[in-house]
Design a protein that fits this description.
This protein has 148 residues and is an all-alpha fold. The protein is built from six helices and no strands. The protein is globular. The chain starts with a helix and ends with a helix.
């Protein structure tokens, strides 16, 4: 339960900065450290190489690579935003993010819907592709802030 709460809290910070990058609030160092730990853990679990992640971030083009897809799934799973049935639960963020972010989150949810890939990794990959299409510049800014 504690790790799920931590994951949701981290996801809250990630998506808050994804949606409101111009906000004056800086990501606390403790959150950055936790996100980096999850990042490394998911890299180790999936075998994705850092170069693939960096290239994807720089170009906002997602590689059609099985290890990268599973890396995304791992990150969402660790943040508590994808369940064991491989269904994304971005609506859970409405309970924890500030009200001024709700229209943006709702827009992502409504625009992307519930995407179902061939497995959990593909579901995460297809969902992230849609989120980038909807809010690409914000996602890039959030990743810049969190991972440097």
């Amino acid at each position: 339960m504690c790790s799920k709460s931590l994951g949701l809290a981290l996801a809250m910070f990630v998506l808050y900065f994804l949606i409101e990058p111009q906000h004056a609030f800086q990501v606390p160092e403790v959150v950055k450290k936790q996100v980096k730990k999850v990042h490394v853990r998911c890299m180790n679990q999936t075998g994705v190489v850092e170069e693939t992640i960096v290239a994807a971030h720089k170009g906002l083009t997602l590689p059609n690579d099985p290890a990268f897809k599973c890396f995304l799934h791992c990150m969402f799973e660790m943040f508590g935003l994808i369940d064991s049935e491989h269904v994304m639960h971005m609506d859970a963020l409405l309970d924890v993010l500030p009200e001024e972010t709700h229209p943006t989150i709702k827009n992502m949810i409504e625009t992307c819907g519930t995407i179902k890939g061939i497995d959990g990794c593909d579901t995460a990959f297809q969902s992230v592709k849609c989120y980038i299409d909807v809010e690409g510049p914000f996602i890039k800014s959030a990743v810049d802030d969190l991972l440097g």
